[in-house]
From TrEMBL:
Organism: Sinanaerobacter chloroacetimidivorans
Protein name as it appears in the record: Polysaccharide deacetylase family protein
UniProtKB keywords: Membrane, Transmembrane, Transmembrane helix
Coiled coil region boundaries: none
GO MF terms, alphabetically ordered: hydrolase activity, acting on carbon-nitrogen (but not peptide) bonds
GO BP: carbohydrate metabolic process
Domain of life according to the entry: Bacteria
Transmembrane regions: 7-24
GO cellular component, one term: membrane
InterPro entries the UniProt entry points to: Glyco_hydro/deAcase_b/a-brl, NODB_dom, Polysacc_deacetylase_ArnD
Pfam families per UniProt: Polysacc_deac_1 (PF01522)
Domain NodB homology residues, every copy: 65-242
């Protein structure tokens, strides 16, 4: 009798565990979505088939001997003229991802970026994290910025750099529906972190694989100080610095 009770109790426990697993699995399939953040990118985590969708640009072809410097702009207008002069003096064109609110507040500087022949692309309007807002709000962030940049420069953006590299499957689907690519990076200056001096910034980048790299930077004073030597050392490795649209993928 005791043995029979043990069998019955065991069967009940097994049934409850199995039922819980089934419910959890169905819930995951219906409600869960994969989320990718900056830490994921640093660790090299890739989305399920996302790159195969041909939407995300993480880096260029490693045998191309070309590299892209990308600069995310939501502030830093006080140092951007110096950055532009350095780029001009070195005959280098890069890609600027600008936020819509920054563009509205700094139209003349945005025009100067365009006149110098740099690529201008989309960084969202208010620098909002894509996984923290609705898909409709994310769409508004992209399209509002597109309209602002188009109005000021006549340039229509086609590539979106999500603020802080924060995105999920919904963001990728949104970019696809809007005809946008999404740009990330393969080498990060981390120039916003405390202690990021010019020498530290330069060392962070030069120790990375540079062929086909997308180097992320911001308009910071120490980044501007690092830029001349960084450009020289990249060129010394026979690597050409090009805007993202010219980077072989």
């Amino acid at each position: 009798m005791k043995k029979k009770k043990i069998i019955i109790y065991g069967a009940i426990i097994f049934f409850l565990i199995f039922s819980f697993y089934q419910i959890f699995s169905i819930h995951s399939l219906i409600f869960d979505k994969e989320v990718y953040t900056v830490s994921d990118l640093i660790l090299g985590v890739e989305g399920k088939g996302i790159d195969q969708e041909n939407i995300i640009i993480r880096k260029g072809a490693e045998d191309s001997k070309k590299l892209t410097l990308s600069c995310n702009v939501d502030w830093g207008e006080e140092v951007l003229p110096d950055m532009l002069k350095i780029l001009r003096d070195n005959n280098v064109k890069i890609t600027f991802f600008v936020s819509g609110r920054w563009a509205e507040n700094n139209p003349e500087l945005l025009k100067a970026i365009a006149v110098d022949g740099h690529e201008i692309q989309n960084h969202g309007y208010g620098h909002k994290l894509c996984t923290q807002i609705s898909v409709d709000k994310a769409k508004e962030e992209i399209l509002k910025t597109e309209a602002v940049i188009l109005n000021i420069t006549g340039v229509k953006t086609t590539v979106f750099a999500p603020p802080s590299g924060d995105y999920d499957d919904t963001t990728v689907d949104l970019c696809k529906s809007l005809g946008y690519k999404m740009a990330l990076w393969s080498a990060d200056t981390i120039d916003w972190r405390e202690g990021s001096t010019a020498s530290v910034i330069k060392e962070r980048i030069l120790k990375k694989p540079l062929k086909g790299a997308i180097v992320l930077m911001h308009p910071k004073s120490e980044t501007v100080k690092a830029l001349p030597e960084l450009i020289q050392e990249i060129k010394a490795q026979n690597i050409e610095i090009v805007p993202l649209y010219s980077l072989p993928l």
